[in-house]
Structures are given as C-alpha cells and as structure tokens.
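In response to the reviewer comment on reproducibility (Comment 2.3), we provide here a single inverse folding case reported in full, input and output, so that an independent group could reproduce the run without further information from us. The structure tokens appear first.
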C-alpha cells in the first residue's frame, strides 16, 4: 500500500482518521520497544497503510538495541576522494529527505534533539519522531522550522517549535499530547510509547465520567492521581507522568463546548467573542497549573525539594484546581450579567505562582479527623474565592463563614485567617463596610497567630482600602500604613501582595489630596504588575486606570491619555470591542476630555460607551449621568432631559433609596428642569436630591442644595435662595464654582448687577477647564450686567466667545437665547453690527418660544426690544 505521507496527500483526511492511522503506527513501534529495539528513523514514508486501513511500520535498517550507543565506533566516515561539494542551497534540500550517515543517524527533519547531538537514544526518541510526523500530517507543516540541516538541528536542540495553526480543529488534548512527546528533554516526554498511545486515544467512558462528575469531583480525582504518580511501586523509578489527568477532568473539549454554548445563549452579541477569549484565559491558567504540578514532581524526584514541601505544593495546587473548577461550573450556570464578567473573573483567580513554595508556619493538627475537616474546608474556601471572583458574594459568604468556623473548632489559625479575609472582602462588596473592617481586623489577628506575615499584610491592606476609600476616612486608614509595610518586609516583599498594597495606598493617598505620593506608589505598582502580569491582566488595567486619574488631578493630560489608550488596547484585546469593559474605558476617556475642556468630544465618547452597554443589556447610571450632564453643559437641553431621566432610572435600579447615585441624578435633572421652566417637576426631584444628598455626603448635599436655591430664584424667592445658599456654602468644598455662581445669582437678586458684578468675575477666575457650565453661566450673567451698567463693549468681549462656543457645540436655541439677546443689546449699545444684533435678537426670541409657556415673558421682552429698535 501507500506510505502515510502519500496517503495523507491522496484525499482530504479528518483529524480523527489521521490520529487513528498514527496510533496504529505507534503500536508497531511499541511492539519493537517491548522487544528491546529502537527504530531510530521513523517518518511518514516508513509506515505503510493497506487498502483495509491497516498500518505497518517498515524500514528497520537503522534499528539498534536500546542499550547500544548512538555513535558508530571509530572516526566519522570521510568523503570519497574527488567528490565535489554540492551548492549550499541544494545540499540543504537533500538533507531533508535523505538519511544522514556518519556522526549521527536518522532523517534530519524527524530526528529528536538527542540524535542531532549524537547522544544516547531510547524508546522516547521514536516517540519524538512519531509526534513530529503526526504534527506534520495534522497541520501541514513540520513542527521544527528550518531549511537546512544546520537550521533544523539548532531549532530542535533549542526546543524551538512552530506555533500550531490558530484555527486548528484538532482537540486540545491531542495537541497537548503531541507537544509533550516533542519535549526537548527525553525525561519530559511520555515514559513509554504506550502512554503516548493512551493520550492520543483516551477511553470514551472516561470522558463521560469527567463530564458527569464535574461539580465537586476535583478533590476526589486529585488525591489518587498523586498517589499513583509520585510514589514508586515495587522499586520502579518515579516518572512524574499522568499529572494532567485532574486538569483534564475539569477542563476538556466537552466542557469548553458547553461553556461556549452558554455564552452564545446569553442573548448579547459580544458574548461569542468573549467566550473564545475566556476559553483562552482558562487554557492559559490550566497550562500554568500543569507546568507547576510537573515542576513540583520533578523537583521532588530529582531531590531538589523535600517530601514535606511537595505535600504543601500539591495541596496548594489542588486548591487552585478546585477554584478553577468552581468558576467553570458557575459560568455554566451564570446569567448574562455574570457572564459579562467572565474574563475579569478568570483574571482574578488566585495565582498558581503562589504555589511555588507555600509556607505553613503553623503545623496542621495531628488528629486525622481534624485534618480531614480542614482539607474539606479549604476546598470550600477555594470555591468561595471563585464565586468572589465572579462577583457572587451571596454564594461565597456561607463558604467563608463555614471555613472560618472549622478553623476555629480545629484551632488551626491559617484557615480561619484566610476565611475571614474572604468574608471581609465580600462584606465590602455588599456595602457592609463597618462589618468588613471588623472582620478584616479579626483576619489580621488570626494571621498574626499563624505567624503569616503575607496574610497579615493582605488582611490589613483590605481593611486599609475599606476604611480609607469606602468609608471615606483616609487619615484613619493611613495610621496603619507602617504596620502593613512592616509585614510585607517580614514576608520578603512578595511582588503580588506588594503591588496590591501599593495600588490601594495610591487610591487612599489620592483621596487625601496627596497626589505626588499617590503617583509614586501607583508607578511602583505598575512596574511590578508589568513584571508578573500579562499585558491585559486585570490588576494591571486597574492600576493603569488609577494612574490616569492621578495624572488628571495633576493636569498631566498627555500622560493620562497615554495610560487610557493602553487600557483601551488591553481591554479590546482581552474582551473584544463590544465588551462592557471597553465601554468603561470609553467612559474614562470622556472624563479626560472634560478635564481638557473638550465637552463635545466627551459626549461622542460617552455615546459610544452607552451604545455598547445597551447592546449588552446593561443600564449604567454613571455613563448615562455623565452624558446627560455634558449635554446640559453644551446646551443640548432636549437630549440632556431624556438622558438624565434614563440615568435616574438606572440609579434607582442600581441603588434604590436615598443613595449617592439617586442624589447625583435627581439633582442634575432637577437643575435642568429649572432652566427649562418646568418648576413643579423640578421641585419634587430637587427635594429628593437634598434628602439623598444628606445621606450621600457633603459634596453631593452641596450640589443638591445649589439646585434647590436656583429653584427658589426661578420663583423670585430671593430670601429662600439666600438661606439655602448659606447652607450649601457650609458643606461645599472651598472655591466650589457652582456655589460661587449661585452666590453671584443671589447677590444679583438682592442688590442688582452692581452687587453681582464682582461675584461673576470671581466665578470666572476660579472655574476649571472642566467647569464649562459655570463658565458659560457666569459669562452670560456678567455680560447681561455689563449691558445694564453701560459697559456695552465689555459685554461684547465677554459674550462673543461664549455664544460662538455654544453655537459650535450645537446647543439648542433655548439654551443660547439669553446670551444671544444680551449680545444683541451689547452690539447695539456699542455701535456694533446692527444687522447682526437684530439677527441675534430674533434667534433669541425663537429660542425662548421653544420653551413654551415658561419662555413667553422673555420672548415678549425680546419682541418689544426689536420693535423699539
């Protein structure tokens, strides 16, 4: 019959047909190995397949007993006398297809690294050649790159391999088996050809068992696998093989397919793309886990680590696999909201690298039952961390509490300390901040009893964040700073805990206004994350975003934009262009544009963010609120009204009651309705904003009170406005531009323009680039007053740029009406362009008319002025 190379070319072959044919060839080689022989020259042309599909291995011309040396005795054969050298390019091509003789034997393209090096060969050498041939048959190219013997030999001996095609239909388990058989070191390959055959053709009943027993089977699968693999029986050498069985039990082709289907059924377009990216994250985590497990085994086998250290490493890795399994199981049952967070959750799984040398500073109890209870509780805790990563703290908390109780009953403080950390983090997520601080205090105490400095630092850093950010007490939090840093020093400055600490430190320092210190801490955190985290790692992205906030507060917009661009690139790469995390990045870019004073650019970014969120079924009050506020600022009042109605609905859904989101959205919508003349509708909203602002904090209360005072002014109740202004000023931050503007408007109501002029100028002197609303209103009020006070030229200078800005921003006619009318009067009073003055006044009258009944009085005033002119 044909050889396997010709058979593969003769017709399209499925991956299953190709693998089945090469498994038959592998059985032939295995038979030779059992007879004590090594083929040494296996390649596709040395295996024949007959018409019935039966494969036989042929051409044993280089066969050698397994214990014979690879090199031939005596010097290498010399070239025949008078032989001419072939051209370099054709020599390389011949070497790919002809059997080399002399120092090494075999066909170069299919030779294992040890053959190229002229070292001893054994059955694992044939394993490499078979895997190389199978790789070529499945993917259309050999795994080792190179066009000449020298290039091929160098690549094989350095372990350089071509990447598999990204669209390969070959299952991961098959590809993984081939990669293992192609390991550079023979010791890293399968122990025998029979084991490779088993990996290429796993029994179907085992696959069904893996799928059926997934929910809680990981721990049950792991322990027997360790016992069978790591401890020799009957004097056999430890081989460290079969270590991937537990991973294959929880993460395999069937489960990946089920997860993809679950993403596709979530009902949002971006999830199919996210599914592929999430699967890649799980593949990477699983590969890291397997590499760590093999490393633990080989270190113990080679005498580089003790059996006690091996136990600790394997227990740690067991917990990581339980955590991974729980997350996969939760995703298979997750709703669309949870599925949206899949990539982030995978990125927040506890690091496999922590298992490289885990410490147990307090011995486990000697009592077997206590040890068993601790082991079960550790499994529960691992599942709890998986639920926590997915944001499902209602499922994580009972597991954390149960593990803490086991730790207390058994007296094993490391378990209780770790369980209390999880409990404290969940309480923080659920908004129970006081309880979280108390729980994390307890976690730090248990960690101290366990003499675990890294756990002390983790518990205290979590407490520091809750106290300094969530509870708004940065000064109190910073009192504990030196204890955290001391614990990290005693723990040996571990990179991951230190980076987390520096990140939360930067957040709290920024809250306290210590911008330079915050920048230094976050810069160091980013440096560490870049060393230990992938480019799109969740922790790195979080730190980059915080760094951008710090740069914004320093007015360093170029640096902030560079950071946000990096975040955007990472989010798109990690989650796809339609993922809500990309919408969040767009929202932050919009905030940057506001600080730069480019409100229209911010609006465009926020519209894009909301489009992504709406297609994903998300209602986000923050992005909607930002957009509504920006639309109101540029005078797009109609759009702003609809947007802020949506923002308030989203805020009520996200945080019902008198919450900060409700205070912000109700205040903004109420203030806009005052401008639109809808005073009765504004009344109820502003009253609610004042009530919610009192619960949300002084800054939000000041904003709500400012809206309330403007409502009083709109009703000509200057006394009520003054009382409310005084109350707002007591709780507002110094030089709050919004409160300063209100003060100018109240002064105008009390004393007229002479009393308000200086106040309006004060607003213009303190308003930042992002306070365009206050700048426009103060310029408009000042312009009106200058006209009234007879300084028409000064009014033109104040009003012209603001009218032009609003017109360029496509403001509604009603929003520009007052300024247009003031500018028209200023032009007329200063002897300016009378035709333009009349056009501005007519536009102002139309704008007031757009307001309906609330604008009738102003429209009549403009009409009277036009008639007089």
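Designed residues, in position order:
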């Amino acid at each position: 019959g044909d050889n396997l190379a010709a058979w593969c070319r003769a017709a399209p072959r499925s991956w299953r047909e190709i693998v089945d044919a090469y498994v038959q060839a592998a059985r032939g080689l295995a038979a030779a190995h059992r007879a004590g022989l090594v083929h040494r020259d296996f390649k596709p042309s040395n295996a024949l397949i007959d018409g019935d599909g039966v494969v036989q291995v042929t051409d044993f011309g280089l066969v050698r007993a397994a214990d014979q040396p690879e090199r031939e005795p005596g010097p290498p054969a010399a070239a025949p006398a008078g032989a001419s050298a072939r051209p370099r390019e054709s020599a390389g091509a011949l070497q790919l297809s002809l059997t080399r003789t002399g120092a090494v034997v075999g066909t170069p393209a299919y030779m294992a690294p040890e053959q190229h090096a002229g070292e001893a060969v054994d059955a694992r050498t044939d394993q490499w050649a078979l895997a190389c041939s199978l790789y070529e048959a499945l993917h259309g190219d050999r795994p080792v790159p190179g066009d000449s013997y020298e290039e091929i030999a160098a690549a094989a001996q350095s372990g350089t391999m071509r990447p598999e095609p990204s669209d390969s239909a070959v299952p991961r388990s098959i590809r993984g088996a081939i990669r293992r058989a192609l390991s550079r070191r023979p010791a890293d390959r399968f122990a025998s050809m029979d084991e490779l055959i088993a990996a290429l053709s796993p029994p179907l009943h085992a696959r069904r068992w893996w799928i059926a027993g997934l929910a809680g089977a990981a721990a049950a699968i792991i322990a027997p696998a360790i016992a069978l693999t790591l401890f020799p029986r009957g004097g056999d050498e430890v081989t460290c093989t079969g270590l991937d069985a537990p991973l294959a039990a929880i993460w395999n082709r069937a489960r990946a397919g089920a997860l993809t289907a679950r993403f596709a059924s979530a009902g949002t377009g971006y999830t199919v793309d996210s599914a592929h990216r999430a699967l890649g994250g799980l593949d990477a985590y699983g590969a890291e886990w397997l590499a760590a497990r093999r490393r633990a085994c080989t270190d113990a086998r080679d005498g580089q680590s003790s059996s006690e250290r091996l136990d600790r490493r394997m227990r740690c890795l067991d917990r990581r696999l339980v955590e991974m399994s729980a997350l996969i199981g939760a995703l298979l049952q997750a709703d669309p909201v949870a599925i949206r967070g899949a990539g982030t959750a995978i990125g927040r799984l506890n690091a496999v690298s922590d298992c490289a040398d885990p410490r147990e500073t307090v011995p486990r109890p000697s009592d077997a039952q206590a040890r068993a209870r601790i082991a079960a509780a550790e499994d529960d805790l691992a599942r709890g961390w998986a639920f926590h990563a997915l944001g499902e703290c209602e499922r994580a908390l009972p597991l954390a509490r149960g593990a803490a109780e086991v730790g207390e009953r058994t007296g094993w403080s490391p378990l209780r300390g770790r369980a209390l950390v999880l409990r404290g983090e969940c309480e923080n997520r659920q908004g129970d901040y006081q309880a979280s601080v108390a729980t994390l205090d307890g976690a730090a105490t248990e960690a101290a009893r366990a003499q675990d400095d890294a756990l002390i630092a983790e518990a205290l850093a979590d407490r520091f964040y809750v106290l300094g950010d969530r509870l708004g007490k940065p000064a109190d939090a910073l009192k504990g700073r030196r204890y955290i840093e001391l614990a990290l020093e005693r723990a040996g400055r571990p990179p991951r805990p230190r980076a987390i600490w520096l990140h939360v430190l930067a957040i709290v320092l920024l809250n306290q206004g210590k911008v330079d210190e915050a920048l230094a801490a976050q810069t160091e955190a980013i440096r560490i994350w870049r060393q230990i985290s992938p480019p799109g790692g969740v922790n790195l992205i979080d730190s980059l975003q915080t760094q951008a906030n710090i740069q914004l507060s320093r007015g360093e917009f170029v640096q902030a934009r560079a950071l946000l661009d990096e975040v955007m690139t990472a989010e798109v790469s990690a989650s796809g262009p339609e993922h809500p995390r990309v919408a969040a990045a767009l929202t932050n870019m919009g905030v940057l544009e506001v600080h730069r004073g480019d409100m229209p650019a911010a609006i465009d970014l926020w519209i894009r963010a909301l489009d992504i969120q709406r297609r994903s079924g998300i209602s986000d009050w923050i992005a909607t609120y930002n957009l509504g506020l920006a639309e109101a600022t540029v005078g797009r009042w109609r759009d702003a009204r609809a947007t802020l109605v949506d923002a308030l609905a989203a805020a009520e859904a996200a945080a019902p009651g008198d919450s900060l989101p409700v205070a912000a959205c109700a205040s903004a919508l109420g203030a806009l309705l005052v401008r639109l003349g809808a005073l009765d509708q504004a009344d109820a909203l502003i009253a609610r904003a004042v009530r919610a602002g009192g619960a949300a904090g002084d800054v939000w209360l000041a904003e709500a009170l400012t809206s309330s005072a403007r409502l009083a002014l709109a009703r000509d109740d200057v006394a009520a406005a003054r009382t409310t202004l005084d109350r707002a000023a007591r709780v507002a931050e110094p030089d709050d531009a919004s409160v300063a503007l209100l003060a100018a408007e109240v002064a105008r109501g009390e004393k007229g323009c002479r009393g308000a002029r200086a106040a309006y100028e004060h607003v213009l002197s303190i308003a930042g680039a992002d306070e365009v609303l206050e700048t426009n209103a103060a310029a408009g009020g000042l312009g009106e007053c200058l006209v009234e006070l007879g300084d028409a030229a000064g009014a033109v200078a104040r009003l012209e740029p603001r009218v032009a800005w609003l017109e360029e921003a496509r403001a509604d006619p009603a929003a520009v009406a007052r300024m247009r009318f003031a500018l028209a009067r200023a032009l007329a009073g200063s002897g300016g362009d009378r035709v333009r003055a009349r056009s501005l006044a007519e536009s102002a009258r139309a704008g007031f008319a757009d307001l309906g009944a609330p604008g009738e009085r102003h429209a009549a005033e403009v009409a009277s002025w036009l008639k007089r002119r």
